[in-house]
Amino acid sequence: xxxxxxxxxxxxxxxxxxxxLQKRGRSTLLIDRRAPGEETxxxxxxxIQREGVYPYxxxxxxxxxxxxxxxxxxxxHYHLSALPRLAPFLFRYWMHSRPNxxxxxxxxxxxxxxxxxxEHMVLAEEADATALIRHKGWxxxxxxxxxxxxxxxxxxxxxxxxxVNFEVLDxxxxxxxxxxxxxxxxxxxxxxxxxxVSDPHALTMAYVGLFERLGGQVAMxxxxxxxxxSPGWRVRTEHGVVEAGTAVVALGAWADIVSxxxxxxxxxxxxxGYHMHYxxxxxxxxxxxxxxxxxxxxxxxxxxxxxxxxxxxxxxRDDPKTPVQLxxxxxxxxxxxxxxxxxxxxxxxxxxxxxxxxxxxxxxxPRHKNLWFGIGHAHHGLTLGPVTxxxxxxMITGERTIVDPRPYxxxxx
Length: 413
Ligand SMILES: Cc1cc2nc3c(=O)[nH]c(=O)nc-3n(C[C@H](O)[C@H](O)[C@H](O)COP(=O)(O)OP(=O)(O)OC[C@H]3O[C@@H](n4cnc5c(N)ncnc54)[C@H](O)[C@@H]3O)c2cc1C
Prior knowledge:
The protein is of the alpha/beta class. It is built from eleven helices and 22 strands. It has helices at 12-23, 62-70, 83-96, 99-114, 116-126, 145-162, 171-177, 200-213, 256-259, 324-336, 381-397, and strands at residues 2-8, 28-32, 47-48, 76-78, 133-134, 138-142, 166-169, 187-191, 195-197, 217-220, 227-228, 233-237, 240-249, 269-280, 290-292, 297-302, 305-310, 312-314, 339-342, 348-354, 361-364, 371-375. Helix 1 (12-23) runs parallel beside helix 8, helix 1 (12-23) packs parallel to helix 11 (381-397) and helix 5 (116-126) packs across helix 11. The radius of gyration is 21 Å and the shape is globular. The chain binds flavin-adenine dinucleotide (FAD). Flavin-adenine dinucleotide binds at residues 8-14, 31-34, 38-41, 44-47, 49, 222-224, 250-254, 257, 273, 275, 309, 350, 352-353, 377-383. Flavin-adenine dinucleotide binds next to helix 1, strand 2, strand 14, strand 20 and helix 11.
């Protein structure tokens, strides 16, 4: 079998890349070791974060660092045994998160974020999947005045510098918007521009369906079998060996399994995260995805129930699950919103693929012809999948690009 392009990894990022290439007339094969969209893209919080121009940084205030060091918080957890391996990454992440650097990164990152919702809507309309996307924004709720003031000040700066919109909520307004939230809150902040997805897996599958309708092919295969052919690339799939002129690595947290043998030592680490679904008690309804900011967990209304997602767990990618953050979050979440019984047999875990400067890697491999990367989307892979897909497809086909791709190249490291 011969195709123009083989895309390795069928998460939201690889699927979006494959779809954009197929739309441009490149015969494309999308390969995964399992069915599409079943890893990290399966279980995220579902936000298309139009407000997310500041990628999630490493905290710099002493109080937060001390809290994290004690390893008892809900929002972050670490495996002591993983720290020696993670230390170089964490140090670089911390350096890039210093206020001046973070601001400079936000300016480079904002052009990608700016297009996140419009690019999703183009694909969702073509895929007949707009019903999965709700345009209601999301809310952060606060328990103390000082924290709320600081967050509102940051939001004002984001609004001033990047034109993203928000509303400040007093407790009365929260009660109108979310009548079933019962905790004692001082107020909230409603980001009004973002959207949310009621089933992230279904959205990825809708994009896979569109890709196939346009003539794209999906196959199971192990990306580790990728090897150079002259010219191009060769990979083994369930249907036999496939030759492709171009290969794209979109393996999320598993990118190293292909990049390392080719001599690229990507500066990637992972932040693991968990979810659990709950039946709402009685007739309770959650109208907006809601972050309990000071406690550090997220509740999102999903097709399957209320999805509780957790923050960052610093651990080795392949270590067994340790859903302690979920266990800590659950009782707090129950006091915020009337959650009924658990709906999943066990907590789900996903693995966010992270770079130290918090921006994805989108662009050519520096030392191999016709090899490209679309990886490292960290907390924003759902948000940015379609933008990355378009940008990479435009670069590969030599079109004018939607944004300047230079800040996202691998050779920045
Ligand atoms: C708890 C949680 C909440 C989140 N919330 C949000 C959110 O609200 N909004 C947002 O934008 N992002 C969110 N994210 C981040 C987002 O889910 C990820 O950035 C995104 O899913 C990454 O997509 P991907 O396609 O790069 O990776 P993946 O979806 O992980 O896809 C990588 C693919 O590579 C395949 N693969 C691995 N090894 C091989 C191999 N040997 N051969 C072939 N294929 C292989 C895997 O099977 C997988 O399908 C969240 C993440 C978590 C964990």
